[in-house]
């Protein structure tokens, strides 16, 4: 409960209660007062109708028995709430004028003496109030014990006026008001309850979405890189637009974090793999040192360094992901010439004949220079690592308007299982190999929309690795450009 009091959901409920209560009071209080006034007006209106019902009878006769029967025939008379104050039987002559009218009026107030008129029914109003009503000739109400008395003057003839008194009890003035207030209070409570329910449901949607977002953020912070906030489906559709945008932003951020971490792992693995090229040279040179303590120590140090580099590569590539797309470019022909020149020195030492063709003209590709150099080193390093000393190799560059193809072939035994060789990134390539060289080359090709294929060299008869880098979206048949050149070229005529 304490947690609920400090939650957004509770705040929405309190706001809904406050707003609905103010609106309900603004409408229901005036409505209740109007109902109360309506009940009061209804009671007095009914009393006036009861008094007016005796007008025809008084205009016909002032006989007490007849008037008593007329009073008893009304609802108010039957309930003992009506009285009739009759004028005296003696009427002033017409010549009496105003004096006679005044005397007749004075007689209606029930003044003591033989000239006073008769009274029928239970009287509650004071004589002075009755006289005032008859003298003024208009009806009004006076407060009496237990309620009010309506005094209604009725002309009997030209000079005499009777006064009809109708009692209105206090209960009649408030009849139905309590029930109306109860109904209105129930309506107000119902509105508040509905508003609380609606606010609670809305708050549950908002709070649920916010909690899912917070849980995803905590999971991401704890290292769960696969966590995502659902942005589709019924639950997501019920979330506010702002929280859906926040969920999209969170998912984009999580994807970017995964992307950056994957790129960092790839970079660490690639940089470590680049160390294998000079290590290969060191290992081959150390093998030619002969026997002796210094030679053994050098070979041991090189082997230990290779193991450490292999461990770094495996650790960095433990959870591989696609690296970010590379948008910078380089001249593939220049990079290939440089790397083939580097490996040519080692090829001379091992008596390997080599050749390079198609690298005489500028060949732009959308990859980083260092990444392409690492890929070429991986392909040439595989030739030196997996073929015997003296085995010839060749490098061909083919270019079209859409792609650049690099063919690396050798005169070795070739691939016994090309498909398994392409999966070496998931296994092992033998002793002294991390099995990641071809995987690095494949990822570089796929980053540009190209591919990597293994086969048999049509020229040398051994293995051939085909690296295709996508340069432009249009496709044409690849053609060989430039001419072959090389030290100890197999094709020198």
UniProtKB/TrEMBL annotation:
PANTHER family: SENSOR PROTEIN CREC. Its EC number is 2.7.13.3. Its cofactor is Mg(2+); Mn(2+). It catalyses: ATP + protein L-histidine = ADP + protein N-phospho-L-histidine. It is found in: Cell membrane. InterPro entries: 2C_sensor_his_kinase, HAMP_dom, HATPase_C_sf, HATPase_dom, His_kinase_dom, HisK_dim/P_dom, HisK_dim/P_sf, Sig_transdc_His_kin-like_C. GO terms for molecular function: kinase activity. Pfam families: HAMP (PF00672), HATPase_c (PF02518), HisKA (PF00512). Residues 470-493 are annotated as: Disordered. The chain crosses the membrane at residues 12-35. The keyword Lyase does not apply. The keyword Magnesium applies. It comes from the Bacteria. This is Signal transduction histidine-protein kinase/phosphatase MprB. Its main location: membrane. Keywords: ATP-binding, Cell membrane, Hydrolase, Kinase, Magnesium, Manganese, Membrane, Nucleotide-binding, Phosphoprotein, Protein phosphatase, Stress response, Transferase, Transmembrane, Transmembrane helix, Two-component regulatory system, Virulence. Residues 204-262 form the HAMP domain. Residues 270-473 form the Histidine kinase domain. PROSITE patterns: HAMP (PS50885), HIS_KIN (PS50109). It is a multi-pass membrane protein.
């Amino acid at each position: 409960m304490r947690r609920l009091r400090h939650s957004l959901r509770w705040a929405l409920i309190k706001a809904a209660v406050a707003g609905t209560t103010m609106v309900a009071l603004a409408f229901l209080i005036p409505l209740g007062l109007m109902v109360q006034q309506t009940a009061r007006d209804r009671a007095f209106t009914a009393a006036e109708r009861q008094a007016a019902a005796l007008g025809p009878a008084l205009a016909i006769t002032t006989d007490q028995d007849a008037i008593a029967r007329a009073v008893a025939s009304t609802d108010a008379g039957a309930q003992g709430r009506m009285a009739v104050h009759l004028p005296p039987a003696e009427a002033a002559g017409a010549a009496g004028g105003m004096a006679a009218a005044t005397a007749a009026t004075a007689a209606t107030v029930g003044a003591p003496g033989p000239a006073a008129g008769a009274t029928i029914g239970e009287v509650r109003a004071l004589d002075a109030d009755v006289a005032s009503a008859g003298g003024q000739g208009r009806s009004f109400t006076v407060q009496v014990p237990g309620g009010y008395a309506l005094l209604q003057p009725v002309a009997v003839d030209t000079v005499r006026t009777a006064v009809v008194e109708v009692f209105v009890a206090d209960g009649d003035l408030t009849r139905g008001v309590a029930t109306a207030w109860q109904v209105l209070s129930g309506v107000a409570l119902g509105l508040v309850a509905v508003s609380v329910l609606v606010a609670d449901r809305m708050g549950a949607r908002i709070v649920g979405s916010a909690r899912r977002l917070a849980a995803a953020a905590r999971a991401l912070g704890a290292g769960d890189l696969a966590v995502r906030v659902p942005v589709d489906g019924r639950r997501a559709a019920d979330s506010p637009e702002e929280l859906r945008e926040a969920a999209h932003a969170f998912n984009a951020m999580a994807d970017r974090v995964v992307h950056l971490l994957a790129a960092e792992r790839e970079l660490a693995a690639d940089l470590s793999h680049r160390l294998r090229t000079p290590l290969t040279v060191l290992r081959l040179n150390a093998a030619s040192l002969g026997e002796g303590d210094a030679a053994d120590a050098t070979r041991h140090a090189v082997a230990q360094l290779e193991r450490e580099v292999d461990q770094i590569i495996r650790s960095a590539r433990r959870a591989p992901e696609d690296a970010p797309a590379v948008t910078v470019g380089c001249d593939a022909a220049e990079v290939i010439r440089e790397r083939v020149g580097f490996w040519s020195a080692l090829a001379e030492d091992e008596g390997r004949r080599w050749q390079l063709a198609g690298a005489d003209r500028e060949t732009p590709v959308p990859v980083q220079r260092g990444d392409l150099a690492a890929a070429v080193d991986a392909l040439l390093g595989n030739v030196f690592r997996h073929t015997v000393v003296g085995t010839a190799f060749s490098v061909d560059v083919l270019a079209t308007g859409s792609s650049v193809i690099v063919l690396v072939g050798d005169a070795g035994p070739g691939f016994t299982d090309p498909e398994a060789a392409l999966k070496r990134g998931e296994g092992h390539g033998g002793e002294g190999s991390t099995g990641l060289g071809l995987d690095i080359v494949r990822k570089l090709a796929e980053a540009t929309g190209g591919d990597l294929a293994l086969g048999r060299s049509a020229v040398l008869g051994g293995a051939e690795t085909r690296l295709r880098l996508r340069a432009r979206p249009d496709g044409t048949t690849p053609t060989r450009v430039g001419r072959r050149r090389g030290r100890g070229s197999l094709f020198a005529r």
